[in-house]
Write a structure and sequence with these properties.
The complex is a heterodimer of chains A (319) and B (203). Chain A has 319 residues and is mainly alpha-helical. Chain A contains 18 helices and no strands. Chain A has two domains: 156 residues, no CATH class; 130 residues, no CATH class. The longest helix of chain B has 31 residues. The chains are: A mainly alpha (319), B alpha+beta (203).
Chain lengths: 319, 203
């Protein structure tokens, strides 16, 4: 097999759409919790005028300096104003639409349109509220962007049951999973390498600071002090886990342990820092990228590709 | 075959952008320091950051179509920033306190308030951005907006002083010796009914 063929085989594996079902369901759940968690503050966070926290106009003005073509809630509000709907009502409708779309994503109903609308509405909220957004929004955009491009519906979606449609482009399916996998590797590599350059991650100082820093100070510092000799090990483990991710997640012998460790790290972040949404999105992206069928199925010596029949592969290669 | 080529072209462009912007942010974080690298390296990273920004078209005029197209794609794909969360070190945290003055001489204190913990994380992120190295007029505008939202709930207040500061967290050793969080003053802004703003800065 030539190098070119090897690269092609790596980038275009024949994958089942289990990962896609996981991504769709996980992002649907994430979106649902995102919408519910902001239920009481949605209009307060995104209002341009009146009793909002900080004017949406400011966030959108800063965004316009980068590009006036990035989707934003201001577009929807302007559209609503034309047909006589107030800003408050448009914002509430956007929130309700997110809630409904999250449910259709979970169920797998109208998958394609749900994914596109979910990406668009979340992007609007994320960008208009750029001043009040943080990492979780960024990762949700990444996930929803790939979901929108993916060959939906997957086999577990209600759409598949209702319309009995034929399996979608498997080549694009496998290719997109590779894209997500490589993206995850880059995320952890850059996160890890930058942490490795901070002294605080090697002596536990940064773990102490992260866990005592408001509003992440959920664990009483008295408890942390009891575990103070353990903190440097935690800091070093995080550095090694993240920096080593792009290597060890691919090796057959280490991929399961690496995935489990990374998932455990995110569960711990969620529980000890109160960043539940952040933890969930990272767990969803990791499971979709390197989930059970990759970590366990392939570590037993056979890849998903090898399980496929030779005629299927030659048919795919001829595309 | 043609379809595959299109996929590959997108793949290389997409990951080139992700890698380039992640590298730029890493360089930017290293330029701000402190890191395990010698302090003398900081000036090199500062220069490298300028070069990286120029290569990525960030020094082009804001109205440049190529820059706008690139920014639109980056935002749409969620790849406009790097991934240096809490790196190289966990940054400081900020606090904004409003001092509300009433005609009868009464003084009340308020914090920016939201109803859920999830929104609370967002407010904390907002304060971090306000404390970041952005230029002062933007910070003042943001404080003014936050003060206005507080004013909506306390319409009887005649003047509001907004005090922006950083929370100094004790180290483990300091905590064991009984030291608690302390509040370090950074900026103060006074707002009155006629909207005349004055700012006092710490020396």
């Amino acid at each position: 097999m030539t190098r070119k063929e090897k690269v092609a085989r790596f980038l275009f594996p024949l994958e089942s759409d289990n990962w896609l079902a996981l991504l769709r369901f996980g992002l649907g759940l994430q979106l649902l919790l995102y919408a519910l968690s902001l239920k009481g503050d949605w209009n307060y966070l995104f209002a341009a005028t009146g009793g909002g926290l900080i004017s949406r106009n400011l966030g959108e003005a800063i965004l316009s300096l980068e590009s006036p073509f990035v989707p934003r809630l201001g577009w929807l509000v302007a559209l609503g104003t034309r047909i006589g709907i107030s800003e408050d009502a448009v914002l509430s409708l956007a929130w309700m639409a997110l809630l409904v779309i999250s449910c259709t994503l979970i169920a797998g109903l109208l998958c394609r349109w749900s994914a596109i609308l979910a990406w668009f509405l979340h992007l609007c909220a994320d960008k208009s509220g750029g001043l009040v957004s943080y990492g979780v929004d960024n990762f949700m955009t990444i996930g929803l962007f790939y979901l929108m491009l993916s060959p939906l519906p997957d086999r577990y979606a209600l759409d598949q049951w209702l319309r009995k449609s034929r399996p979608k482009d498997q080549q694009w399916n496998g290719f997109l999973r590779r894209v997500l996998q490589i993206h995850m590797c880059l995320i952890y590599f850059f996160s890890g390498i930058t942490k490795c350059l901070g002294s605080g991650w090697w002596d536990g100082t940064n773990i102490w600071r992260a866990l005592t820093r408001p509003p992440f100070n959920i664990v009483p510092p008295e408890i942390l002090v009891r575990w103070k000799y353990f903190l440097p090990a935690v800091g070093i483990s995080i550095c090694l886990l993240e920096t080593g991710y792009p290597v060890f997640i691919w090796l057959k012998k280490t991929r399961t342990i690496w995935l489990v460790s990374i998932l455990a790290m995110h569960v711990a972040i969620g529980l000890t820092m109160g960043m539940y949404l952040f933890a969930l999105i990272m767990i969803v992206l990791n499971l979709a990228a390197f989930g059970p069928d990759f970590a366990i199925g392939q570590s037993k010596g056979s890849t998903n590709d090898e399980k496929r029949s030779a005629p299927a592969r030659s048919a795919m290669d001829s595309n | 075959m043609r379809q595959k080529r299109v996929y590959l072209a997108w793949f290389f462009l997409h990951f080139l952008l992700i890698t380039a912007f992640s590298c730029r942010e890493t360089i930017s974080l290293l330029a701000q320091g402190p890191t395990l690298l010698p302090v003398s390296f900081q000036s090199y990273f500062q220069k490298a950051e300028i070069v990286a920004s120029a290569v990525l078209g960030q020094r082009l005029p804001e109205s440049n179509p190529a820059r706008q197209a690139l920014a639109t794609y980056l935002h749409a794909a969620g790849i406009e920033t790097g991934y240096g969360y809490f790196a190289p070190n966990v940054p400081g945290t900020y606090k904004l306190v409003f001092e509300l003055h009433y005609l009868d001489g009464r003084v009340e204190y308020e914090l920016p308030r939201v109803s859920s913990a999830a929104a609370g994380l967002r407010v904390a992120g907002l304060l971090d951005k306000m404390g970041g190295p952005r230029y002062d007029p933007l910070r003042e505008t943001m404080v003014k907006m936050l003060a206005y939202s507080v004013w909506q709930e306390h319409p009887a207040a005649t003047t509001i002083s907004a005090v922006f500061g950083t929370i100094k967290l004790p180290t483990i050793a300091e905590f064991e010796h009984g030291q608690k969080d302390s509040y370090e003053f950074l900026y103060s802004y006074d707002f009155s009914r006629i909207d005349k703003t004055t700012e006092r800065k710490s020396p």
